[in-house]
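Example record

Each entry pairs one chain with its bound ligand, nickel (II) ion.
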Amino acid sequence: MAILQILEFPDPRLRKIAPPVTVFDAKLEVLINDMFETMYEAEGIGLAATQVNLHKRLLVLDTSEEKDSPQVFINPTYAVIDEELTEYDEGCLSVPGFYETVARPSSIKVTSFDKSGEPFELVAEGILSTCIQHEIDHLDGKLFVDYLSTLKRQRIRSKLEKEHKKSA
Ligand code: GNR
Ligand code: NI
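Structure tokens for the complex follow.
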């Protein structure tokens, strides 16, 4: 297994739109395992392939308290079940140190493939719904800071750019 490097905002590679996974093979399984290891090590509840500079429609997550419920979604899409929104204080491993409230649909129906290429469906609510939407946004080159005001986003950008200069 391997810990992968996580890209940080405002890295332009986080803006790429990921194409679908077409081959379900052993290489994909290795990538999934590395993504889980990277996510758990970083203490995140989710990780999209885009964040580790792999541009494929693939995400992993584990929203359980015990960190014993890994879930994989390949080529996932979702439909909003009703108009109700839920607010969560969101953070992102690609925007380290910043947390802001984002409103998203409370309940979604997700259609996806598992790592063997089998289709499945799932209704998600609460933090699972928020997390899946946050991760699918990554696959479309979108970040939670895009839902904030320009002023807030620019402040986050310049603080992170300063951090990156220091550690470069
Ligand atoms: O670890 C994470 N926590 C989190 C909290 C609220 C809403 C979304 C998230 S996802 C984030 C990990 C991450 O950056 N995934 O892309
Ligand atoms: Ni994120």
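The chain has a mean pLDDT of 97.
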